[in-house]
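Lab notebook: predicted structure, single chain.

Context: the supervisor wants predicted structures on file for every construct in the current expression panel, including those that have not yet been purified. This is the next one on the list. No modifications to the sequence; it matches the entry in the shared construct table.
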Amino acid sequence: MSYQTIVNNATTIQINNKPISSATLSRSNRLKTALRGEAIYRFNVAVGRAFEWNATNRAMLQILQQKGRTVEEEITLSQTSGMSYIMGYAGTLDSTQLGDIDIASYTGATLTLDTSNVTGIDPADTLFDVGDYIQPANSRYTYEVTTPVFATDITLNEVDVPVHRNIYPASSDSGNNIVGAGINVANNCTFHVKCLSAPTHTLQPGKLFTFDGNFEFVEVIL
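Prediction complete. Output recorded below exactly as produced.
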């Protein structure tokens, strides 16, 4: 749980989920751009507080050293002190209604959801708003909604939800077929990351220590 401990104690979290792109300017001032890689999550986490030099935190430091860049851990942003809003849900459905939604199919960067088991949807409801996090319940990967989805968008008990990147197939998702799975929403969503960069730590009088820089966590794509 060492990565999650760091995230829980973050004072700032920088989130980058932009696709990798390149740009060149020719001699005739023609700008050329190209996509070079898919959108993956990168988290730059600052922990601007001192930790007590006790058995628990000493163990955390050892775990961080052992994991290095090679060990994966599942984290969430919902437990960070004072920052639960980061993954807050902006739609109007309640938790029971969200729990009754299943994935009917997917194509490209669109999830098609089955709402046939959901009761009590009002025509004025917003199912998802821009920036809401959504994750197939059996999947490694979390996505962000890019367009508001309203109850009036439902047709024959199905509704399309556009997200910020292409849906990963079973071959890139531990073999899991997400069709028929439920969904995690907002604070229930998680990320599988490795720690690309970890700072050193400095001991201080009073049995305290601080980290000397930021942690960089990068999503692992299979």
